[in-house]
Amino acid sequence: MRTKIMETVTLNNGTKMPLVGFGVFEIKKSECKQVVLNALKAGYRLIDTAQAYDNEEEVGMALQETDVPREDIFLTTKVWVTEHSYNKARASILESMKKLKTNYLDLVLIHQPLGDYYSAYHAMEDLYKEGKIKAIGISNFSAERMADITAFNEIKPVINQVETHLFFQQNFLHQWMNKIGIQHEAWGPLSQRRIVEIMKNHDVKEIADKHHKTPVQIALRFNIQRGIVVIPKSMKLERMKENIDIFDFALTEEEMNTIRKLDENKSMWAGYDNPEIVQMAMS
């Protein structure tokens, strides 16, 4: 049996990152500070935000108030598409640092591969060299876009954060991340609006009962056992504790294969080759 200790992955630049983190997407400003404080209390040390989430300041307030030392927290933010030029990206990242009340960021991602994201990435490379960013990466990049930005830039992305859950397991993209040496990170690891389907799925429930766990814990365990970082979100402290309590058991290969069969290989939102993504991002 595994012990209840947070496991980490080592990124391609040698930085260590927790396998389970806490995402603050769609958490209201009025609630965000306390929610992040609760997450840190529950044992989370990876906090994932973004400029587009409009709650960086509240995350920063929580980081100031918590007893957890800053060096023990892995803090991620993302550059939004409106900031995709060299000067705008650089200025926006420095502004994010002010909002987050920190003099460095552990990880900064290009949020979407739209606009002049190459220039934004060059700004991130320079901030990385200056020591203001400990690692740089990408989000929502297809395998082709990921391979492109890796091949034609000085610094390889450490991470590609993409939609990944039981119904969209991203096997092709996962294989290419492993091939290129980029860490896979899952947003929406509990399939967001489809979480009820996970909780009611007969096979997942049966596996959960065998391990004295919940279906949600099985869903998260499945991906961390694939080596994928997950960033679930919950507003309730007890659920936060449940989501992080997945290091004291392991799924068998038979159980992993059973869960693999749930893959529909389809996004809940829009495929990465769908031009509607541009309209969604700019709305």
From TrEMBL:
Listed InterPro entries: AKR (IPR020471), Aldo/ket_reductase_CS (IPR018170), NAD(P)_OxRdtase_dom_sf (IPR036812), NADP_OxRdtase_dom (IPR023210)
All residue ranges annotated as the NADP-dependent oxidoreductase domain in the record: 26-263
Residues marked Lowers pKa of active site Tyr (site): 78
Positions annotated to bind substrate: 111
Keywords of this entry: NADP, Oxidoreductase
Top-level taxon of origin: Bacteria
GO molecular function, one term: oxidoreductase activity, acting on the CH-OH group of donors, NAD or NADP as acceptor
Oxidoreductase recorded as keyword: yes
One of the Pfam families matching this protein, by short name: Aldo_ket_red
TM stretches of this protein: none
Record protein name field: NADP-dependent oxidoreductase domain-containing protein
The species this protein was found in: Levilactobacillus acidifarinae DSM 19394 = JCM 15949
